[in-house]
Amino acid sequence: MNSNTPDIDKCDCTIIHEDIVAEVRQHMPEEENLLDLADLFKVFGDSTRVKIVCALFQSEMCVCDIAALLGMTKSAISHQLRVLKQSKLVKNRRDGKVVYYSLDDEHVKNIFDQGLAHVSE
Amino acid sequence: MNSNTPDIDKCDCTIIHEDIVAEVRQHMPEEENLLDLADLFKVFGDSTRVKIVCALFQSEMCVCDIAALLGMTKSAISHQLRVLKQSKLVKNRRDGKVVYYSLDDEHVKNIFDQGLAHVSE
DNA sequence: AATACAGTTGAACAAGTAATCAACTGTTCA
DNA sequence: TGAACAGTTGATTACTTGTTCAACTGTATT
Q: Residue B96 carries which DSSP code?
């Protein structure tokens, strides 16, 4: 049993199309990449964070501005910016009392554009 | 107050960059599209569903095959396929006792490719 | 030094969710 | 007709998560 073979113990059925399963398994992305991919989408799976990212597509913004834009508290925004930063999706810079956030990834725009193409059909 | 203006009541700060906030607000996508986009990403934000989608990139598969591939029960897979189907991401066809699932969206591949590009950096 | 304000943080609570289990449907085959 | 099996479904449970609240840090201003 190699690393590409998960625990089949829990599968409660006989394999009908053994050839297809073997073929698909061989070409599946690395388990680690799949978990990371799900985690990335999980970050985008919240409307507050989606709005923050869309806002940052246009301009870097401080926490107060985002809070005002979305009609939410600074605390709520700060918590979500922390999640986005931990995922390396945004970066920030300090200028006096003000902390400015901006996007830190070139793939995000493409992902969002494709997603918006799906939902606006 | 038009429909583009959310409740600022809950914002606990003065607006520092009023011009930027106004500009960004004007170009934000529709609220409804943003909520749908978050919901779409939420569907992808689970490793089981990510694996199912990646498997279906290669071939249509029945529930048993997917269960065997991922080492999970038919029930668990069926529940997740239901979520994917409700989001119009997969479709199915019945052939005797067997139900075959396949992808039902052309944007998904692009979204996943961009996502994988991000996580495998 | 003291005030003001942008921002962060941790605890707590409510809401949502994925896997499990048992019971069920629908189709095939003997 | 009845056994066998692919698949579905609803309830339950354990777990995750977003917002709130209060207390805190850091910087600028007077």
A: T
